Amino acid sequence: MIGTEINNFIYGDFSSRYIELIKTRKNGFYARKLLRKVLIILHPFLPFLTDFLMEKIFKMEILEQKMPRIRQFKENQKVENILEIIDTLRTYREKFQISKKIILEYCIINDKFSNAEIDIINKLTFGKWLENKELVIKTKNFEIAIKVPEELKKEQKGRELKEIQFLKSEILRAEKILTNKGFLEKAPREKIDLERTKLEKLKEKLAFYEKK
């Protein structure tokens, strides 16, 4: 259990979130400081590895180091807010397979962020602040508005056209079956009702796409 939590922390929060935030600073001082503290905390669980890394990276004996104190800073919530927005924008990019070459334009509705905070978000999401209300994603604490990239709009339009063609062909098939006298005379009532229900749903779905 402890090993799993340590693994999740190192490869999750520490590597992909906090180190990423620190990389936006101009030097590696904070990254090294954070790594040293993490090695000390992990030492009881990974004694040989942490001892080796402390000696190799910092030229220090890990047993001579004091255990870091866990303190609550006022800025902690700000950091969590920034990470929440970064995670949301990254998830959106990954879900729709949007290339990092495409700048993701976004804004936070009814919340204020400093230029420095926006700069961090932009760097870590390949994003750009742009006031809009095109696509609103609600997270735990925010409403994030994203301007859908033109490339994605074209892809979605293409998928919708294919879906419309498919629906029309299925409607023709269903109508042909339901106008077939042989089918109506021989098929069980349940089968006929099922086909009629399918036809109604297909027409409703087609109407939805054609209204867009």
From TrEMBL:
Annotated coiled-coil segments of the chain: none
EC number: 6.1.1.9
This protein's GO CC annotations: cytosol
Any GO BP annotation: valyl-tRNA aminoacylation
Name under which the protein is recorded: valine--tRNA ligase
Reactions it catalyzes: tRNA(Val) + L-valine + ATP = L-valyl-tRNA(Val) + AMP + diphosphate
Ranges of residues in domain Methionyl/Valyl/Leucyl/Isoleucyl-tRNA synthetase anticodon-binding: 4-102
One term of GO molecular function: valine-tRNA ligase activity
Pfam families: Anticodon_1
UniProt keyword annotations, A-Z: Aminoacyl-tRNA synthetase, ATP-binding, Ligase, Nucleotide-binding, Protein biosynthesis
Highest taxon of the lineage: Bacteria
